[in-house]
Amino acid sequence: xxxxxxxxxxxxxxxxxxxxxxxxxxxxxxxxxxxxxxxxxxxxxxxxxxxxxxxxxxxxxxxxxxxxxxxxxxxxxxxxxxxxxxxxxxxxxxxxxxxxxxxxxxxxxxxxxxxxxxxxxxxxxxxxxxxxxxxxxxxxxxxxxxxxxxxxxxxxxxxxxxxxxxxxxxxxxxxxxxxxxxxxxxxxxxxxxxxxxxxxxxxxxxxxxxxxxxxxxxxxxxxxxxxxxxxxxxxxxxxxxxxxxxxxxxxxxxxxxxxxxxxxxxxxxxxxxxxxxxxxxxxxxxxxxxxxxxxxxxxxxxxxxxxxxxxxxxxxxxxxxxxxxxxxxxxxxxxxxxxxxxxxxxxxxxxxxxxxxxxxxxxxxxxx
Length: 368
Fold this sequence. Notes:
By secondary structure, the chain is of the alpha/beta class. Helices cover 27% and strands 24% of the residues. It has 11 helices and 15 strands. It has helices at residues 3-13, 47-55, 83-90, 100-104, 109-117, 147-157, 211-221, 255-266, 295-300, 313-322, 338-346; strands at residues 26-29, 38-42, 60-63, 94-97, 120-123, 135-142, 170-179, 194-207, 229-233, 245-248, 272-274, 283-290, 305-310, 325-328, 354-357. Strand 12 (283-290), helix 9 (295-300) and strand 13 form a beta-alpha-beta unit. The model has no long low-confidence stretch (mean pLDDT 90).
């Protein structure tokens, strides 16, 4: 499968439009026209992971954390942060990252964490930078011969995603009229003559952060000299994507049983506990990785149980003072469980590609 087609499948599972503005997701290195036979999934692209990828003849590394995050001025062997990138490029190993897109997505990292502690009807703690309220409907009018080319160009640029569905659109047939003025070169009909033409109305949606890309692709693929289109903002509905999850916990939940669930599902022998260690919490929240920035919302929502990866000291004190039982499992331990699920999800979508979860990817911390 070509890398560009593979990336379309990645975007269905973890739409890049859901990523936070500060994040660096998507294709970080590689040729979109490259043939991909083997993909390795990892949380971090370390030396051990890259060596494993080379030994297994991997064509693409899907790294949850972007190995290229801060701007760098050169990629040189054996210098600074660039040797791993240099080796990956040299060995024709493409690098793709999902990070906060996979955090926010339906069925992503935070949904798994919410499932572990049994949150009922989980809602995001923080809506993504591009929220449902930032959706825009695009309506464009075009001749039948343009219908497939234009719609596909718009989908490729980021339009047409609704939840777990992609390439969503509505199409209906009608009559368009126009009269070309001086200097025009009509695709259909003649200048100075009123024309009535069978056209199609194509409707689809996109996040506003993708709007310029989608419009540019639409106009480029359209055969008309002047493209007629309309834009409609979409009001927020129920938002089910975003950072973190929170909601009510089952009535029978106790702090001890929730900790047991966490240890069992994440395969951990030890976790960090802040705040009350006995009781029956009623409302839970989860946020993978390092999520100190959401604490105010967790506390304001009166959550009394919080599962996360790691916290700065002063954030831990805030939760302790607020009486919120908080479980810290280490940053990557709150994320790694997504990899096998992601591999299983992608396999039927990319039937000619082999997906492998790295054996060398591990938490940099050892707990003794």
